[in-house]
Design a protein that fits this description.
The chain has 362 residues and is of the alpha/beta class. The chain has helices at 13-19, 28-37, 67-72, 75-91, 111-115, 125-142, 160-169, 183-197, 207-213, 287-298, 312-325, 341-357, and strands spanning 4-8, 41-50, 55-62, 96-99, 120-122, 151-155, 175-179, 202-204, 216-219, 238-241, 259-262, 265-267, 284-286, 328-329, 332-334, 337-339. The mean pLDDT is 92.
């Protein structure tokens, strides 16, 4: 039994091989077919989530589909499998279930899933937004970037997370570009920001051009593949990659003059045991996972973040509850590894040297 559950899935086949090592030598199509045929199952029990006010337990439940399968299979088939994973959570006694990675963006972003379950559902996107903005601001400060002078870019701006990130950041920045494919949605978001904050945000669908001039980037597309070419990033750029799968190629790890951080990595209060190693230090998790835990600790067993129209008030509320229960930003991680203040200082110096070498041709 547990108070909450969180649905996870293999991002790529390497995640399957980590659990089922014997499959590594099998042809990829065979492995994909087996994964697709597997029913949802319990991965591990989560214990020791404890604040000053309450203590809860939960489970990780797997929805065995890779990111590629989730975007290539018929949508109704994918949603059906997510619902089945939610039914597993119900049988475990969970009162609320969180949707992880692609399970939170397929179809109508959790609304249909919630209608077909007898427990509360949340995507975790509200706390993901809160920690992404908090982390981005702190990283920019450490890299010596002035928010008031920086070119800020939201990649995937018209999505659930991207639009709220844009609206909140518009309070603090002067130069904001919204990037997505749908021009009508971009224009609508820009008009909303102008009305709310008086900021005239630029809109674009040209990823390459926008990335080349951006000082700060928040990437949240929900794409199954990387959309940002690391060679286009300017020296000293800060990228907060909230998306899972990533919007920034792993090749970025080989550049020593840019800072790419994982959005939404937080420290969970208590003597936490996830029963699963997903590459994080002890007691840390993605913010989307943490939102489910926060709501369970608060006894707020109601669907909190669903659909694609997040509200600023939701982000403010979950931030307040997170602080109440002792959740906080857990430093920075870059490509599954912790990154220290000393390493960030070195990136800052490398960026300065490399930027000085880029001079106009005369």
């Amino acid at each position: 039994m547990g108070d909450f559950a969180f649905i996870i899935h293999p991002i790529e086949l390497d995640d399957v091989f980590r659990k089922l090592k014997f499959m590594r030598s099998w042809p990829a199509p065979v492995t994909e077919a087996i994964v697709k045929a597997l029913p949802p199952f319990v991965v591990s029990e989560i214990t020791g989530v404890r604040s000053e006010h309450a203590e809860v337990t939960g489970h990780f439940v797997s929805c065995p589909l890779t990111s590629k399968q989730m975007v290539s299979m018929p949508e109704d088939k994918v949603i059906s499998k997510i619902i089945k994973a939610g039914k597993v959570a119900e049988k475990l006694g969970a009162k609320i279930v969180g949707l992880g990675a692609m399970t939170s963006v397929v179809g109508d972003a959790g609304i249909t899933v919630a209608k077909n379950l007898n427990i509360a559902v949340t995507s975790g996107n509200s706390y993901t937004v809160a920690t992404a903005i908090q982390g981005t601001k702190k990283a920019a400060q450490m890299m010596g970037i002035d928010l008031q002078q920086a070119e800020v870019l939201i990649v995937g701006a018209t999505g659930a997370i991207g639009s709220v990130c844009a609206r909140i950041l518009a309070r603090d920045v002067r130069f904001l570009t919204l990037l997505a494919r749908d021009k009508n949605k971009l224009d609508s978001l820009a008009a909303r920001i102008l009305n709310e904050n008086g900021l005239a945000a630029k809109v674009s669908s040209d990823v390459k051009r926008c990335v080349q001039s951006a000082d700060i980037i928040i990437a949240v597309t929900g794409s199954a593949e990387a959309v940002i070419d690391v060679d286009d990033l300017k020296p000293g750029a800060v990228v907060c990659d909230v998306a899972r799968p990533r919007d920034v190629s792993k090749r970025a790890a080989f550049r020593n003059d840019i800072l790419v951080i994982e959005g939404g990595v937080v420290e969970v209060p208590g003597d936490v045991d996830f029963g699963l190693n997903f590459g994080f230090p002890l007691k840390t998790s993605y913010a989307c996972m943490a939102e489910t835990m926060i709501l369970a600790l608060e006894g707020k067993f109601e669907s909190f973040t669903l659909g694609r129209d997040l509200s600023v008030s939701q982000v403010d509320e979950i931030s307040r509850l997170a602080e109440k229960h002792g959740f906080k930003l857990a430093g920075f991680r870059s490509f599954e590894r912790a990154i220290s203040e000393e390493q960030i200082a070195a990136i800052k110096q490398n960026a300065k040297r490399n930027a000085e070498r880029i001079v106009p041709f005369e």
